[in-house]
Write a structure and sequence with these properties.
With about 325 residues, this protein is of the alpha/beta class. The chain has helices spanning about 10-20, 30-50, 55-65, 70-80, 120-125, 135-150, 165-170, 175-185, 200-205, 225-235, 240-245, 250-255, 275-295, 300-310, and strands at about 95-105, 105-115, 155-160, 190-200, 210-215, 220, 260-265.
Length: about 325
């Protein structure tokens, strides 16, 4: 996949040089072969250097990359026997939430996932990954079903936020989100939430009250998207990069603030450069945390979940 982000221009030039040399195939001269090897080493080194030092706004761009794997890609690469379930039993189905039981390793789990879509038709079908209230009610219904059958719950989060339409508000968007927050705090099964791209506002929080919150290395998790925050604070979306820096929304910053539990490493250049490695890393992290959580008695699981959210945010009194 091409290096097509603004800060990747130096990498794009190196990649162009490598492709030109590779096209010669067996016609490569010895000095050209050395140039190819040197260019590949330089691309690897420079990519690592850039991605180790991404700014908050650059991380936003990677998290939103058009080729970044979505929930459906991870499900296909990680799980067996995924069976998608539909409908909230009240109004309709919402394709922005993809959910159902699946086999992960040797365990059966309930997956609750945001799904975006790549081409225009898919984006419309999945509403750009922004759920309606019926999506959250579907999620709540299936989380209760998971508790009934003793399935751990895994949420894959990738949304700019819940859909803000008037009709959604009329159908109880805020109530649907609040109901899930309450429900997840009481569920008697392990819950793991993973931010795989964007984790925006209440749209993300509605399926991320979890025992463990994980984030892919180049993902973001925030109370509001940078553009929305810039519009509120400076009345201008052009200040989105400054808003991103001020809010400290990247996975590395949130881990340093102890707002999340663990980072999951991505392939060199981001998850969109190697779906298989990204999925393998995610699966290994999920299985490791699931094994730990399964050892806990239910009363201890619930108490730890309660204390986790009670202890978020530390305040001190200046002397």
């Amino acid at each position: 996949m091409a290096y097509d982000l603004e800060f990747e221009k130096p990498l794009a030039e190196l990649e162009k040089k490598i492709i030109a040399l590779q096209r010669k195939g067996d016609r490569l001269k010895p000095d050209e072969h050395r140039q190819l090897q040197e260019a590949e080493r330089e691309l690897h080194r420079h990519t690592g250097e850039i991605y180790r030092n991404l700014s908050a706004w650059e991380t936003v761009q990677v998290a939103r990359h058009k080729d970044r794997p979505y929930s459906a890609d991870y499900i296909r690469l990680m799980c067996e026997d995924f069976f998608e379930l539909h409908g909230d039993r009240s109004f309709s189905d919402d394709h922005a939430i993809m959910a159902g039981p699946a086999k992960l390793g040797d365990a059966y789990v309930m997956l609750i996932c945001h799904q975006k879509g790549r081409d225009m038709k898919e984006k419309q079908f999945h509403n750009l990954g922004m759920p309606h209230p019926e999506g959250y009610r579907k999620a709540g219904r299936l989380m209760q079903q998971a508790e009934k059958f003793g399935f751990p719950i895994i949420s894959l989060i990738d949304t700019p936020g819940a859909f803000p339409g008037l009709a959604d508000e009329e159908r109880g968007q805020s109530e649907a989100i609040a109901a899930n927050l309450y429900l997840m705090s009481h569920l008697q099964v392990p819950i793991i939430a993973v931010v795989i791209g964007e984790g925006g506002s209440g749209g993300a929080l509605a399926i991320s009250v979890a025992d463990r919150i994980l984030m892919l290395e180049h993902s973001i998790y925030t109370v509001a998207m940078p553009e929305a925050s810039a519009s509120i604070m400076w009345r201008d979306k052009a200040y989105a990069p400054q808003a991103a820096e001020a809010m400290r929304i990247s996975a590395k910053e949130l881990k340093a603030l102890e707002l999340i539990d663990a980072l999951i490493p991505e392939p060199l250049g981001g998850a969109h450069h190697n779906y298989r490695v990204a999925a393998d890393n995610l699966k290994a992290a999920l299985l490791s945390h699931l094994d730990e959580l399964k050892q806990l008695p239910v009363h201890e699981l619930l108490e730890r979940r309660y204390q986790k959210y009670r202890n978020i945010g530390k305040f001190g009194i200046a002397s």
